[in-house]
Amino acid sequence: MSNLLKAPTRDQIKRLPKALLHDHLDGGLRPQTILDIAKEIGYNALPTTNATELGKWFGDSCDSGSLVRYLETFEHTIAVMQRREDIVRVAKECALDLARDGVVYAEVRGAPELFTLKGLTMSQVVEATLEGYRLGEAQAREEGFPIRVTSLLCGMRQNKLSQDVAELVVKYRDQGVVGFDIAGPEDGFPPSDQLETFEYLRRENAHFTIHAGEAYGLPSIWEAIQLCGAERLGHGVRIIDDIDLSGATPILGRLASYIRDRRVPLEMCPTSNLQTGAAKTIKEHPIGKLAKLRFRVTVNTDNRLMSQTSMTHEMEELVKAFDWNFLDLQRVTVNALKSAFIPFEERLALIEEIVKPGYLAVSAE
């Protein structure tokens, strides 16, 4: 136990087994892959043809505070993910990159409708994505980095295709799709707009999470949980607004108490949340207080390219900001696995693998 109470180094963090619940496929491309595909398809709108400079441009644009520049970054990644072979490549590289960073289980999400601009059907997009994950898993296994990657399908809350996407979740749930999500702007597009779709998913015994409490506040969280029945909250960072921190002892409001007592998982993405204004620094991010209050906090990347991040980087920043130790990192990893959308037996097997040899072996070195 004494080893678990030590602060891990970056190298140790990288070697720790990790679990990831909130990562967007179109937000995690390799800069060189964007350049390669852009050249093949004749896409000439990129700001530079140098991979290092392009990666920096993505990070700078998302740090700029300009919504226009932030959204432009996704225009580029979506533009190079319109052919089947390109989706396969991006998904394969996603699995590889996560595995090489020590991730052993990941749920990666994407909105199939975004990749149908050149003629692919949404089913073809799903199938290409799943094929890429399997190829990436196989290569990662050969390299000695076992990983399992599953898929979450997103409906864009400002559009009208969520029901179609939900039906794809049910269609492909035995082939690697484990759940549903809605993404896109929270303000003006409340979760209850999609209520019929969520009711359909519940009738079909299908899992779903909802982006809520990221850029918008408590009403979005309340609707996601109490009206729509979300099992997890994508971000959920604004739940801090329902906690009175002015005194010596924090006082939880009704909604915050419900979220904590029901063990509703929070898919928190610290670096990304800084870019969207949840906090000015990691040290000020609500994740520190929420973890101390024993909310079911999980640590995630959101958009690895846009935030220039990885699971190792996210965890390293939290170790620095909140003096987290091996036990703290183990706790949020177990939280993520408890909250995964795979069957209980599979979650339990992963948890046992992490609790016993993983953390103890690394921390003992």
Structural commentary:
- The chain is an alpha/beta fold and 365 residues long.
- It has a single domain, classed as TIM Barrel, CATH 3.20.20.140.
- The protein is 48% helix and 13% strand.
- Strands 1-2-3-4 form a four-stranded parallel sheet.
- The radius of gyration is 19 Å and the shape is globular.
Number of helices: 15
CATH topology: TIM Barrel
Report helical residue fraction: 40-55%
CATH superfamily: Metal-dependent hydrolases
Shape descriptor: globular
CATH level-two architecture = Alpha-Beta Barrel
Report low-confidence residues grouped into runs of 5 or more.
none
**DSSP strand content:** 5-15%
Whole-number total of structural domains: 1
Strand order, largest beta sheet = 1-2-3-4
Derived from helix and strand composition plus strand pairing, the structural class reads alpha/beta
Tell me about the biggest sheet? 4 strands, parallel
Order of helices and strands: HEHHHHEHEHEHEHEEEHEHHEHHH
Distance between the termini: 14 Å
| Number of E strands | 10
- CATH hierarchy class name: Alpha Beta
Summed over residues and divided by their number, the pLDDT gives a mean of: 94
